[in-house]
Amino acid sequence: LWLGFLASRSRLRAGTPGLVVHVRHHSSSDSYGFYLTAPFNVLMKAAEELHLPKTLRAEYGGGLKEFVQAEVDYFEGTDYQDHFFTTQERQWLVLHLLQTLRATQGDTVAGLKLIEGQAIVPKCVAAGVISQVFPLHDQTALHKLRKTWVRSFTRTQPLDSISTYFGVKIAMYFAWLGHYTTALIVPAIVGFTFWVCFGRGDQAMEDVGFVLFSFFNVLWFSVYLEAWKRYCAELAYRWGTLDQRDELLQEPRPLFTGPLEVSKVTGRLEPTYPLWKRNLFRYLVSVPVIVLCLVCVFIVMMLNLKLQDWWDRQIEAKGYAFCLSYLPKVLLAVGITLLDEAYYKVACWLNDKVSIRELFSVTFLHCILSSRSRKVKRATGSTADSAAGDRQREGVGVAVPAGAAAAG
């Protein structure tokens, strides 16, 4: 099969990936599934390339240290190879090996011409040769999480187990969610106390209560931010993400293309892209497209506000049912959802053409204007209706249409 052929020919910078490929045909979808794993020695090599932090044994000082294969005996847990790397780490390492498969001169896949040094798998995904690349569930670990986390409402969240299975980003999100929810108990109690003390008095007493509660909220929020910073730093240190490597030392993303040149930082051949070309595309294409997208959001928001005012007058004048007043709100929610999908595709296109910043700019600014629209509609008496990746113990799945596999 073409993927195994390419895997045998393509090279990492320091040798072959060493991925183990199991192929299955799925008749229900008429596609081939390539189930990829990697032996322990290959995972160790990838961990060293990615400078993965691991815990040292107590006799060597403990703490976290970037993994070095030559010093494997210094790290804790190496006696049990199946459990040395967490689920998230194995997924990350196998995906790294898969994405660093680079084309050699003259390589083609299902009619696709590949540039020398180009990442093969992301190119095949973008062209539709590969339907999708996804991790698979570890049913044992998933069942444990379902029992101790999803269905357990009275226990604290097993953040370490979440980080091990889903990764640090997902675990950090739920850590913040739990921390913030717990912290909201304080303003809830204070707010209820103010309502009891000041809510039943005259207007002057209510005004005093509102002012005092506002000052309290400012103070509480400042204290909460500092508390979260400390807790976040504690979790980041525990999970080995507190000190990130400089961007210049990180590997270029797989879809980054350009002529191969020796990097002044790493001393290795890496794809480069002229700065003047990136700036030319950014200012002549990216910026106008982003501005146009934001103008579209603003126009949709203003039109919906005017529609809401006109519809409210029609309901009052003709005596329509009150439930019909929510029609503009539903239309706004549908419009925002459709714009989100369209802008995400535009952002991905800009991201592939120039740099990663546009993906953040378009979606972030669009979300700001969308939320601003919802806030404006609340102020005028209307509200718009309106936050994981699967993981497996060791492998990554690649789905390929049968026609594409045959063509290779």
UniProtKB/TrEMBL annotation:
Keywords: Membrane, Transmembrane, Transmembrane helix
GO molecular function: chloride channel activity
Membrane topology of the entry: Multi-pass membrane protein
Transmembrane segments: 173-196, 208-225, 280-303
GO CC annotation terms, alphabetical: plasma membrane
Lipid metabolism recorded as keyword: no
InterPro entries, sorted: Anoctamin, Anoctamin_TM
Subcellular location: Membrane
Domain Anoctamin transmembrane: 162-352
Pfam families: Anoctamin (PF04547)
UniProt cross-references to PANTHER family, sorted A to Z: ANOCTAMIN (PTHR12308), ANOCTAMIN-8 (PTHR12308:SF51)
Annotated family: Belongs to the anoctamin family.
Protein name per Swiss-Prot or TrEMBL: Anoctamin
Organism per entry: Graphocephala atropunctata
